Amino acid sequence: MKKSLFTLALGLLVLASCEKGSHYKVVATVGDNAVDGDTAYLTSYDSGDTLSSAVIANQAAVLEGTLESPLMARLLLGGKRIGFVLEPGEVSVTSDGKASGTPLNEKMTAFEAQLDSVDDADAGPVFLKIYEDNRDNAIGPWAFNNYLMCNSFTVAQVDSLLATSPAGYRDLKRMQKAFNAARQQEATAVGKPFADFTAADGQKLGDYAGQGKYTLVDFWASWCGPCRREIPNIKALYEQYKDKMLFVGVAVWDNPSDTRNAIKNLGIPWPVMESGKNWTDPTDLYGISGIPHIMLIDPQGVIVARGLEGDAMKKAVDEAMRK
After folding, report:
1. DSSP classification of residue 88
2. What pTM was computed for the model?
3. Which residues, at least 6 apart from 198, have a Cβ–Cβ distance to it below 8 Å?
4. pLDDT tens digits, 75-106
């Protein structure tokens, strides 16, 4: 399963019954004394608010506090971001992303292993089953949101699905993002004109799309394994059709230096637009929740296909070039 999609989907603040003021303790181990003296931060995925912090000493940090409801949290530890369920009790977190010691985190570990063993095309039904089995605990909304992300639902379909979900789901910020993504997917669906945006260096998508040639647009990031694996497929098309069509990359959710190193290491010959790790304008505009996301735009600027990869991408480009 794409790690980008799973990692981006863990950002869900969840609601569950919990005695008010229940105590939690997070024991985080780093395994590297080079970060001793740095501060570890525990934050809410949904709001980004800092819940607790502690100085790392002897390769470990202990963060404690109280919470009214279990939630999905992010631990910033030694330069890494680790997602887990924050719930009453003591949670052990390691810098390799493992969380254990509490019931829901033990469940999450099992689910992660299950999801790692399936392809993206099969992830949706798995998330749906996890949701159905955990509707009323902290894992339910996380699984439900992932299920939404694994499918291209319309606004009406998302609304219908939420109508049968437990109370409280609809108010979660991640669910609102699902609504917004569905709206933007409808606005930028096949047959619609492309939506323009501008990178920090002044490049616009409109500098390429709608300029009289077919344009292949690749939304990607250097840290995304599936994105990197798709580059050779795009390069093959580039070598075949570079005189007849345009190619452009859009690096999202990535550090500029990492993007540029990847461009060099992967030998990417086409232009790449980038604006840093917090640049979400392009993905928000197109309702993109997981990368890579590749689209084909015709010479007049109309979207011909989106969500392309591998053989499907080659087929779409080959057919366009025969017209």
Report:
1. S
2. 0.69
3. 204
4. 998 778 898 999 999 999 998 889 999 999 99
What are the angstrom distances between the C-alpha of 146 and each of 212, 223, 268, 285, 302? Answer: 38, 20, 31, 19, 29
Which string of DSSP letters, residue by residue, matches 253-303? SS-HHHHHHHHHHHT--S-EEE--TT--HHHHHHT--SS-EEEEE-TTSBE
The residue assigned the tokens 């590749």 is: 294
**3-class DSSP state of 192:** coil
Per-residue pLDDT tens for 295-316? 999 999 999 999 999 999 999 9
Q: 188: alpha, beta or left, given left = phi > 0 and alpha = psi -120 to 50?
A: alpha
CA end-to-end distance (rounded Å), the chain: 35
In tens, the pLDDT along 251-274 reads: 999 989 999 999 999 999 999 999
CA distance 57 to 261: 33
Q: Which residue has the tokens 């499918």?
A: 151
Three-state SS for 50?
strand
Strand partners, 302: 193
Beta bridge partners, 41, equal: 53, 76
Query: How many angstroms separate the CA atoms of 259 and 276, rounded?
Result: 9
Cβ-count burial 22-55 (b if 16+ within 10 Å, e if not): eebbbebbbeeeebeebebbbbbbbeeeebbebe
Instruction: Report d(CA 283, CA 313) in Å as an integer.
Output: 19
Q: Which two tokens stand for residue 296?
A: 């084909």
Torsion of CA 301, 303, 305, 306, to 10 degrees: 110
Sign of CA dihedral 111, 170, 279, 247: positive
Q: CB neighbours of 111 closer than 8 A, spacing ≥ 6?
A: 130, 139, 143
Tokens, residue 283: 């993905």
- In which residue are the tokens 């296909």 written? 305
Q: Which tokens go with 12?
A: 């869900």
For residues 62 and 91, give the distance between their C-alpha atoms in angstroms, rounded to a whole number.
Answer: 10
